[in-house]
């Protein structure tokens, strides 16, 4: 049900069903599903505007995936957590988290994999990180990380990921006040 719940924008009673999944996972001692439910519940709260509660659940999910050293889960949870941080304006937390996960993807040669959803995970994390660096005034770092993401999106020839990175590059140049480069990417 979680895919439908997310795609429908967390309709009424969603939290009740998600919490039931959390309880079942805990009862079955299934750590991976428990972490998945923490992540989705975090997304629920973020979507509903309770950013702090969303971040708490997302952080719990990410830390748990690091503890069990599951790269796939860690990447998926990092994407959710970076999204929650970005929506809450916590850009420093995005740049504290995402470069390490991006490095893990590159070191393990998994940067072209899709761990969750219709976008390449490496591209998503590079986009979050690049724009966050820009909001913090670190424009050189913003450009460098977005270029890393663009390189992979071009290599894998995945148009949605490429479009996302182009949009994020446009944002970073717009934030910098460089309209000519922003328009080129937009």
Structure description:
With 186 residues, the protein is mainly alpha-helical. It is built from ten helices and no strands. The protein has helices spanning 2-7, 14-28, 31-47, 51-67, 71-87, 91-107, 121-135, 139-156, 159-176, 179-185. It is globular and about 55 Å long. The mean pLDDT is 90.
Q: Helix tally? A: 10
What Rg do the Cα atoms give? 17 Å
Q: If you average the pLDDT, what whole number results?
A: 90
In CATH, what is the class of the largest domain? Answer: Mainly Alpha
Q: What gap, in angstroms, lies between the N and C termini?
A: 36 Å
> How many β strands by DSSP?
0
Largest sheet: none
Number of spatially distinct domains: 2
The H-level CATH homologous superfamily of the largest domain, spelled out, is Tetratricopeptide repeat domain
State the low-pLDDT regions, or none: none
Structural class: mainly alpha
Helicity level: over 70%
CATH-defined fold name of the largest domain: Serine Threonine Protein Phosphatase 5, Tetratricopeptide repeat
Q: What is the element layout, followed by pairings?
A:
Blueprint (H helix, E strand, L loop, with lengths): L1 H6 L6 H15 L2 H17 L3 H17 L3 H17 L3 H17 L13 H15 L3 H18 L2 H18 L2 H7 L1
Helix pairs in contact: 2-3, 3-4, 3-5, 4-5, 5-6, 5-7, 6-7, 7-8, 7-9, 8-9, 9-10
Keywords:
186 residues; mainly alpha; Serine Threonine Protein Phosphatase 5, Tetratricopeptide repeat; 2 domains; 79% helix
